[in-house]
Design the sequence.
């Protein structure tokens, strides 16, 4: 199959590597890279299948400035909520791509492990079941790809788990122990599920790979950028310092701001997300933990 990967960061590169087991794969990014099969965006857009890893906060501008729909089948492999509008990625893409041509990838998947061909399980989510099956068949032997029609559930869980991962990193950095970490992650799952159901997501999605699976992975390892954001916050570092040290995008930051605005507008009870937002704005982690325990 002719597959084009848009985004040559760690995740885009890992997906290009994995998909090349069975397919011919090209890759591109905003800045030229000296890597195998790197081509121009113009050439990528001619591919039948596109895998898009553009970060959530850049998706709107990237689509507006670069994307030309030519009937391609698209798998969105980034996760997050746009901070400026509160829109989920499927809401942003619907202006440019019809539902029958787009799917969204979810599930626990560190890029570094995919690059080592370690066993991984993912979910391809689309309103078009046939499209989900098509994309699932493209994945290599070491990745088990399931399919689902719950696009909203995939979008919510993929975005929200990054916010909980920031809180988990703070818990770890403060030395609060495994009891606290387990409590935070389990209550984070409940909060994430409650938020998703308010948007029409299916309840069972949140106990599957894209929900609990991705949350447990992201909220328990320093391989997670968002977990490392939390570690930085626990040490009193500013957002700017943390991002400079990371040298990468941490989607949970933008999503925290988006959830804060959504919670205000819809009067939703999101205690963990609320405290993560406040800590990103400078509130003391000790005060946040105290408030969480008393709320």
Sequence:
């Amino acid at each position: 199959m002719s597959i084009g990967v848009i985004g040559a960061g760690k995740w885009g590169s890992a997906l290009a590597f994995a998909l090349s087991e069975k397919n011919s794969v090209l890759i591109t990014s905003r800045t030229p890279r000296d890597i195998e099969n790197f081509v121009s965006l113009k050439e990528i857009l001619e591919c039948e299948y596109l895998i898009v890893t553009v970060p959530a906060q850049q998706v709107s501008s990237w689509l507006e400035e670069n994307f030309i729909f030519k009937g391609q089948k698209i798998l969105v492999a980034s996760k997050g909520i746009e901070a400026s509008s509160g829109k989920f990625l499927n809401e942003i893409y619907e202006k440019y791509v019809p539902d029958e041509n787009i799917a969204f990838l979810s599930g626990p998947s560190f890029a570094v492990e995919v690059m080592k061909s370690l066993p991984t399980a993912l979910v391809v989510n689309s309103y078009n079941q046939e499209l989900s099956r098509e994309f699932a068949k493209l994945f290599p032997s070491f990745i088990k790809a399931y399919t689902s029609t719950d696009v909203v559930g995939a979008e919510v869980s993929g975005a929200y788990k990054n916010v909980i991962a920031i809180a988990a990193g703070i818990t770890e950095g403060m030395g609060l122990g495994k009891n606290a970490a387990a409590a935070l992650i389990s209550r984070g799952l409940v909060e994430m599920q409650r938020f998703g159901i308010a948007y029409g997501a299916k309840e069972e999605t949140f106990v599957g790979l894209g929900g609990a699976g991705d949350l447990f992975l992201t909220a328990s390892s320093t391989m997670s950028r968002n977990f490392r954001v939390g570690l930085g916050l626990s040490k009193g570092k500013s957002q700017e310092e943390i991002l400079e040290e990371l040298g990468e995008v941490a989607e949970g930051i933008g999503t925290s701001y988006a959830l804060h605005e959504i919670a205000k507008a819809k009067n939703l009870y999101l205690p963990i997300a609320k405290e993560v937002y406040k800590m990103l704005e400078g509130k003391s982690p000790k005060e946040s933990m105290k408030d969480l325990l008393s709320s």
User: Anything to note?
Assistant: The CA atoms of residues 122 and 145 lie 5 Å apart.
